[in-house]
Design a protein that fits this description.
Blueprint lengths: L7 H11 L1 H26 L4 H8 L3 H10 L1
């Protein structure tokens, strides 16, 4: 079965225009993404390890790793 080419940006834009609930959730996730990006920059500036940040935030190191990979 061959892969179908998909323009993700167009698909998301179309869905945002036609589905208000999707638009709301999408916009909220972008805010979260930007916040996480700021967090990653700050912790790297402080030369913190994933384990340091995990201890400081009460999360597991694996959670911090997943956040960093999203960036």
């Amino acid at each position: 079965m061959p892969f179908t080419e998909l323009n993700v940006k167009e698909t998301i834009d179309r869905e945002r225009q036609s589905n208000p609930e999707f638009a709301k959730v999408w916009d909220e996730s972008r805010t979260e993404y930007k916040l996480l990006a700021e967090l990653v920059l700050l912790w790297k500036e402080q030369k913190m390890t994933q384990m340091d940040l995990a201890k400081a935030t009460g999360n597991k190191q694996q959670v911090i790793s997943r956040i960093e990979k999203r960036m």
